[in-house]
Design goal:
alpha/beta, Rossmann fold, 5-stranded mixed β-sheet, 3 helices, globular, binds flavin mononucleotide
């Protein structure tokens, strides 16, 4: 399966990064195609709630930042893995931003499964 892992910890060698790497290695060994992206090191703004994507944008987000690189990967993903540290009892802001920015597509078209890798 086509697996996309979004890693949302700013610590490149931290616990979340380690879990994401291990998941990637095991999934590749099992024959899956895996893409791992550290979204904490990308420039991804929060959703503006402008509704452009649901109107004039016809599915496109008005904000042109690093999310543009992620949209094609998310559109192809059959499995989406969200890897994040817990910050104040919830997901890190770095992983929340790309989740909210999927408001344009709501449900990614090929997505069959999701998984969470959480570090606390
Ligand atoms: C801003 C901040 C808030 C945190 N809040 C929580 C929390 O609510 N609950 C918890 O168990 N750990 C909390 N932690 C600890 C991290 O979740 C924990 O150290 C995690 O393993 C960090 O992952 P990383 O190594 O990938 O950065 C917090 C850490 C930070 C920096």
């Amino acid at each position: 399966m086509q697996i996309l892992i979004l890693q949302g910890s700013p610590r490149a060698k931290g616990n979340t990064a380690w879990m994401a790497e291990e998941f990637k290695n095991a999934a590749e060994a099992a024959g899956h195609q895996v893409t791992l992206v550290n979204v904490a090191h990308k420039h991804i703004a929060g959703c503006l709630a402008c509704e452009y994507c649901h109107g004039k944008g016809n599915g496109a987000c008005i904000q042109k930042d690093d999310m543009q690189e992620l949209y094609p990967l998310i559109a192809e993903a059959e499995v989406l893995v969200l890897a994040a540290p817990i910050y104040y009892f919830t997901l890190s802001a770095q992983i929340q931003a790309p989740i909210h920015r999927c408001y344009n597509m709501m449900t990614p078209p090929k997505l069959k499964k999701m998984a969470l890798l959480l570090s606390s």
